[in-house]
Amino acid sequence: MLVQAETYFYEPAQGHGLPHDPFKAIVAPRPIGWISTRDRDGQVNLAPYSFFNAFGAYPPIVAFGSEGYKDSVRNIEATGEFVANFVTRELAERMNRTSAPVGPPCSCSSSGTISSSTVASQPRAFRSSAAYIIAASAPFMS
Description:
The chain is α+β, with helices and mostly antiparallel strands. The chain has helices at residues 23-26, 71-79, 92-97, 116-120, and strands at 33-38, 44-49, 52-57, 60-64, 81-86, 125-129.
């Protein structure tokens, strides 16, 4: 007996009719990039980004996508630098706390959320100079 499966196409411009945008669930699993930055005054910001990955080895390229203009992007524009840290299972709960929407200035180390030595002890981290900041807009998204 031949069973035909239904085929669905996700076309953002056409809408999806679901309670939540399925894009984040379609592209999975994704590593979490824990992006640490400093503003011009040295204030630390630490935030998780699920749109993060390595894109090349020679030269080494890491990137993350921010949904909106957040402190991480503002700090990178100001200083030209960020550190991409990988989240370990042991730090998952603390990483979740750093996703709280708080306004600048926010020092994750002074708020007790995480200490700078904890992030420094991560098994993988990449210090990066920002080569490009691309502002994208999508007219089909609400």
